Amino acid sequence: PDKCLNLGFQTFHCVFSFGEILGLEIRPVQEDKYPAIPSSSLQSCVGIHRKTMKYILVVAFLGAAVAFPINDADDDKIVGGYTCSKNSLPYQASLNIGYHFCGGALINSRWVVSAAHCYKSSIQVRLGEHNLAVNEGTEQYINSAKVIRHPSYSSSTLNNDIMLIKLASAATLNSYVNTIALPTSCVATGTQCLISGWGNTLSSGTNYPDLLQCLKAPVLSSSQCSRAYPGQITSNMICIGYLEGGKDSCQGDSGGPVACNGVLQGIVSWGIGCAQKGYPGVYTKVCNYVSWIQNTIAAN
């Protein structure tokens, strides 16, 4: 069978194609679970770009499939974007476990929203960052007090891919560290949005930037999204990007914010490859979760 393997810095992005022989679809998984393998064929090489694969699938002679973990979660970055103006996105967070592994967005002084597939029981949230390699004097490093995944999150489908992080102490809000508003309505098709993160900048190969990257991209229609990913898009997902390819989020951007008209409308979630023609990025549709966010914050 064909095999597609991309090993990136801080990221083991693993994709396999078994074509018509086995008709296997490799889905993103949590680190403590084996990948779900539905017996329905999909694209020849499935690259989970916001959510990275963490298992190698070995196919034995008798058709048995065995999964072996190859690395912990590391996610996505921006392909085809540009370096953001320094400290222009004060809501941007870097989730850190000794290294940057996911993004997030500060929604009030004590809470950050990210993707559920970025879950770790303990996370250091880094705010006020621009250059990850340099202490610029604007940063605030705050440990998590609680990390709460959506109760209906599915690691096999990535439905409800949203998570809240309560900070152990309140962030000091200033021009470098500030919040982004939650939506009061869902975003319209065609709206230009701003995606940001420190993920991989290459659609083929790896280059993880120190400087925060930005990308402006349009919201696609639900029909365009469903045609790109038949049978995989739920009502809690939204596609943002370019069907012609070339611009996208990628490994290392997971959990990061999508701001539309200054409001948090998306969370970097998943996709096939990075910036591949016909496969736009898929994002958690934040407008569906405002009540859950508010209720969870009130209860914790």
TrEMBL record:
Residues 78-298 form the Peptidase S1 domain. GO terms for cellular component: extracellular space. The keyword Ubl conjugation does not apply. PROSITE patterns: TRYPSIN_DOM, TRYPSIN_HIS, TRYPSIN_SER. Keywords: Disulfide bond, Hydrolase, Protease, Secreted, Serine protease. GO terms for molecular function: serine-type endopeptidase activity. It is found in: Secreted. SMART domains: Tryp_SPc. One of its GO terms (biological process) is proteolysis. It comes from the Eukaryota. This is Trypsin I-P38-like. It comes from Chelydra serpentina (Snapping turtle).
